[in-house]
Write a structure and sequence with these properties.
The protein has about 325 residues and is α+β, with helices and mostly antiparallel strands. About 65% of the residues lie in helices and about 10% in strands. The chain contains 13 helices and six strands. Strands 3-4-6-5 form a four-stranded mixed β-sheet, with helices on both faces. The chain has a two-stranded antiparallel sheet with strand order 1-2. Strand 1 and strand 2 form a beta hairpin. The chain is elongated. The protein starts with 5 loop residues before the first helix and ends with a helix.
């Protein structure tokens, strides 16, 4: 097995990044229209005095056209801030600290030598004080590219195994996998926040608007039906948001981990060392204080303890990481 197709992988990742960025405003505008559609539900009375319900699109479209520019402007500013400060956000989420040569010459020299081997600029190096074993690469450009290692993985792996892990992460940077991952993290984070605001707004309508309607409409069951409609709308919005969050994972191919394994093996010319490292890491992966699924997708091995609930099991169907056993098997055949 030989590591090939780096330019194809880079082109694919650039394309996926562009698609994610183009999808984002479309999804936001779609969610805004669904929210506005709730206000288009009207009820009237037939000849016999029974309530009838219908959808009036005119006020919905007018409201959507009025709010859409504001929504896009606010989200664009939010996206720009998150895109600019993604390195600091991930560093804060993981508790990572910058590493200088004098603090750990062993690690610094490993990264420097491997970068010289493959002819790439040296990224920043961060350390997380955590006994668990993990590593990840992050960043969207030369200024923000970073390789992060836990103290657990530094202390537990030997030099050959650690070189394999670092080479794996450097390959992610070379292939621009990190760019797609960071955009996905920003995308899902903003989408989840907006979805939370949306559903909370609908629930407030349910608690206050629905109850007041029930009190005022003693002649019919219009208030009760309106409450049901609001509950259904909230459920639909939540389902759409969850589906769209999962959809972004399709832009993150599981193949990227195999490609990074192959690139790391070629860089060090020692695939068995990387296979041994993956076997050791799989026994205690993760970061003890990090419970965010979006950040976990950066890790060299996904912490299985994070997939416990029903929705987490559903997320595992769209997992961004292939089987560790399969990755080890391929490396041992390299």
């Amino acid at each position: 097995m030989q590591y090939v197709g780096i330019q194809s992988q880079i082109s694919k990742n650039n394309w996926n990044s562009a698609v994610l960025l183009l999808m984002f405003p479309c999804i936001i505008l779609g969610m805004l229209w669904v929210f506005c559609a709730i206000f288009g539900i009207r009820h009237d009375y037939d000849y016999y005095g029974n309530p009838t319900y219908y959808f009036d699109s005119e006020p919905v479209n007018a409201m959507w056209l009025e709010w859409a520019p504001w929504a896009i402007a606010i989200v664009a500013i939010w996206l720009l801030i998150a895109y600019t400060f993604n390195a600091q956000m991930i560093q804060h989420a993981t508790g990572a600290k910058p590493l200088e040569r004098r603090e750990n010459p062993r690690i610094y020299n490993m990264v420097e030598n491997l970068c010289m081997t493959c002819g790439m600029d040296m990224p920043k190096i961060n350390i997380v004080d955590d006994p668990q074993l993990n590593a990840f690469a992050s960043g969207i450009n030369k200024k923000s590219y970073t390789v992060t290692l836990t103290t657990g993985i530094i202390n537990y792996l030997n030099d050959q195994e650690l070189e394999g892990v670092i080479a794996h992460e450097l390959t992610h940077i070379r292939n621009r996998d990190t760019k797609v991952l960071i955009i996905s993290i920003v995308f899902v984070g903003i989408l989840s926040t907006l979805l939370s605001v949306l559903t909370n707004g609908i629930l407030r309508m349910f608690l206050y608007g629905g109850l007041s309607s029930r009190r005022s409409d003693s002649k019919d069951n219009g208030g009760g039906v309106a409450v049901i409609v609001v509950i259904i709308a909230a459920t639909v919005c939540a389902a759409i948001g969850y589906f769209l969050t999962m959809l972004t994972r399709f832009a993150i191919s599981r193949k990227r981990e195999f490609m990074a394994d192959a690139g790391g093996a070629e860089m060090t010319r020692n695939p068995l060392a990387l296979a041994s490292a993956l076997r050791k890491i799989s026994g205690n992966p993760g970061l003890g204080h990090v419970e965010r699924e979006d950040v976990a997708q950066l890790f060299i091995i996904h912490p299985k303890k994070m997939t416990q609930g029903f929705f987490d099991r559903m997320q595992s169907l769209f997992s961004t990481h292939p089987s560790t056993a399969e990755r080890i098997r391929i490396l041992e055949q390299f």
